[in-house]
Amino acid sequence: MVKESESMTARGSKLEEILDFCVSLARDMVMSGANLERVSLGIERICRSYGLSEVSLFLLSNYVSLGARDEEGRYAYRQMSIPAADIHLQRLKQLNRMSYVVAEDRISPDSLQKLLERARRVREYPDWAILLARMCAMSCLCLIFGGWIREVIIVMAATAALHGTMHLFSRVGLDRVVINAATMFLVAAVAILLNKTPLRGDSAVIFITISLFLIPGIPLVNAVRNMLCGNEMNGILQFLKVVIETMALGVGLYLALWILGGHSDMSNPVVKSITNPFLLVVLSFLASASFGVNFRIGVHDLWLAGLGGALTRVVFLLLTSGVANRLVYVSVAALFASLYAEILATKRKDPSTYFVYPSIIPLIPGDLFYYSLLGLYIKDQAMFEMNSVRCILTLFGMSIGFVVNSFLTHYWRKMRYIIRQKG
User: Fold this and answer.
1) What is the pLDDT of residues 34-55, one digit of tens each?
2) What is the pLDDT of residues 6-16, one digit of tens each?
3) CB atoms within 10 A of CB 123
4) 215 secondary structure, DSSP code
5) Spatial separation of the C-alpha atoms in residues 145 and 122, rounded to whole Å
6) Shortest CA distance to 219 belongs to which of 174, 163, 283, 176?
7) Three-state SS string across 64-85, please?
8) How far apart are CA 251 and CA 67, in angstroms?
9) Residue 271 neighbours by CB distance under 10 Å
10) Is 333 in contact with 262 (CB distance < 8 Å)?
């Protein structure tokens, strides 16, 4: 009886070890920037590989719970909170590959936590490399929006201030809303004060560039994507969270403009972006590759990140020259970017997120966000309404492109599986 009891206890601990591993893996993947849909599929695949049934997974961007029953009829349950996401695509890549190894090889449950610890350890970029990459990305965006040497210098100084501010606030542990408002205020203040010196450049170009870096465009697209993919509850919660955080950025910029008067030279706040297609493509390549460093993509894959941004820009330029409807051409461009990422991910067995985040940088509507906020500030209702609608259409268009890609790839994989079974 004692041996039987010990055997049952051991089997029960195996189940608990598997669930502990799964919720920790889900937490780490979401924190690293994974899409919730893909994380759910990965966790369910691992549970099935270990013979677990009645799998009940509830996953939000800040919470995960998992329950399951083993082959002996024992049931266990685990839950865990998920800290705020800090996109780290190289870690996500390793975690994703490890999840496939675990599901295929059925690693011994008592070795799972050690395996997870090894997957968490990745080679990090030095802080100076991240700062230089951010400066390069922001400079490229500044040039895309029509800036030149003066604007680039101010943007680079503001980026350095942004880099230091983000490091400072990450240690304090403040709420994201407060961090967003304070960061935007401080960075905008630096830009406004520098713009009052002999450097003086185009304020609209400067603030549009800063806004594009800070607005949570990727989380917002993911929120809309979740709502369109049937994960309505998480999508709504994530959408409300991102909207509040975006409003905090608006408050910070509004206060900086109000206190320091940075809007005084904006007699014509509409910038003239460069129109040379070759320069746009080259700058998009450099910006996406630089954002790849910011997203912690492996150094050997940065050229693929840049290529995704450059090709997305090419498709976007071709579409805008022949299609008038913003929702249509943004959706098709986003579909192309996600297909590009999906093809690479399938070939290399990496998460598509690893390639799609830098590829969609040319589509993030930082200029529309700024114009919407400026319309509110200068009480121009027409400017506010027009640019708000365009910004929303852009974000929905990007989400639609991702959803269509998910639909196509899902049925493509299903068809390939059926063909293999028949073969």
Assistant:
1) 877 778 888 988 998 898 888 8
2) 444 445 578 88
3) 8
4) S
5) 35
6) 176
7) EEEEEECCCCCEEEEEEECCCC
8) 42
9) 21
10) no
* Domain definitions of the chain by residue range: 2-120, 127-411
Dihedral (CA of 101, 104, 110, 113) sign: positive
DSSP code string of 320-370: HTT---HHHHHHHHHHHHHHHHHHHHHHHT--THHHHHHHTGGG--HHHHH
Sheet with strand 75-81: strands edge to edge: 53-60, 63-69, 75-81
| Alpha helix positions (H), 32-148 | 36-49, 89-105, 112-120, 127-144
Residues in the chain: 423
- 349-389 pLDDT tens trace: 788 788 888 998 888 877 787 777 777 767 778 888 888 88
Give residue for tokens 């800063």: 210
Between 326 and 220, residue with greater pLDDT: 326
Q: Which two tokens stand for residue 186?
A: 């401080």
Q: Which residue has the tokens 């599901």?
A: 103
Largest Cα–Cα distance in the chain?
A: 87
